[in-house]
Predict the 3D structure of the following.
Amino acid sequence: MHLAYPAVLAALLFCIGLYGVLARRNAILVLMSVELMLNAVNLNLVAFDVWLRDTIHSGQALTLFTIAIAAAEIGIGLAIVLAVYRNRGTSDIDRLRDTAETDDAEKLPDSAGTDDADGTVPTPGRADEKTGKTKKAEATT
């Protein structure tokens, strides 16, 4: 058997999976693309095992471990995607990038955009401590 045929097929599968990971926005499709990449690796492992005529078939044994890891990965990945979908209502990856919870009261400047005490404009990105504390106190009451 020629090694070139399965190697080219594995390279094509890996490239399709890589394109899917980089171009897709749906988390489930990204997981499917990762599975394609893992299957390309499995194909290479088995092809090189047959080509090298290994007596203990270490490539095939490693392929079995890779399949088990891929099954666990897809199970955990789908559980995470379903939990995120239940909380956010979408599985779009672009909308899920800001998953950290932030305290909006600390980031809001006052309505005029200046500090009441001395008339200066607060620096962008930093919260005014006085305004943030008062809005946080208002939000808790």
Observations:
- The radius of gyration is 26 Å.
